[in-house]
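Example (one chain per record):
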Amino acid sequence: MKLIEFRQEFYNRLQAIYPKTEIAGMYGILLEDCMGISRVEAALRAHEIIPDSELDQLHRVLDRLSKQEPIQYILGKTSFYGLSLNVSPATLIPRPETEELVSWILSDLDAKTTKVKGVDIGTGSGCIALALKNNLANAEITAVDVSKEALEVVRQNVKELGLPMEVLQLDILKNSLPKEGLDFIVSNPPYVCETEKSEMRANVLDYEPDLALFVEDSNPLIFYDRILDVAKESVKEEGSVYFEINERFAEDIIKLAKEKGWKNNQVKKDIFGRDRMMRCRR
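Predicted structure:
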């Protein structure tokens, strides 16, 4: 089969499931991973015959994509803030909006010494913690998660990227942080309500971990409530707490933070114009 023929098959099989731009993105990722070529190179080599071994691999991936399995889980890799990270079904797939949260933290720390101490609660793949460590070489970063399986992925990423940090298994709803004098805490906690499941696509709902996604409708702010309490014990007076948030609850989280003594609270919109990030200061 020629490369141009596989491209047509790829688009034809996925066009009823995904937008064209998303198909193009997945096609580019697949070419890079399986054949080591870019889409530009593929266009120049459109009429070349694909070797059978590579074609079999491409078709195996396409079969799984047609069942709406995320390409990041199929390949076991994703890109985040310039890093290549391992991911698994035990970890969320990092989103572009979360890169914006990392940028906000880094911009706040620009004027400071890089000798900062921070904790990423609910670290998942370790994407936030690792991106921060990669840009703040002297920072002391701790990655925390309740999931043993997720932390195995984090440790693999730490080792492969050569970005040393403490990795800690801890249920933040039941335990305090064994840390004091922190410059910041950051968390992208579960914040999707159970009733929002009907609005979600199958590639998220069927494959990404419920543990990292969902909260009960009766207590949607459970993690924000707890982390703001923990932060009062662990973060310096002049320190900050950063959250990724559900846009539906931006005002509720601000109110909660004020009630707990966090007076300087700011919500930021993401690239899609949604209230997605929040910073709390005393």
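Caption: Residues 83 and 131 are 7 Å apart (CA to CA).
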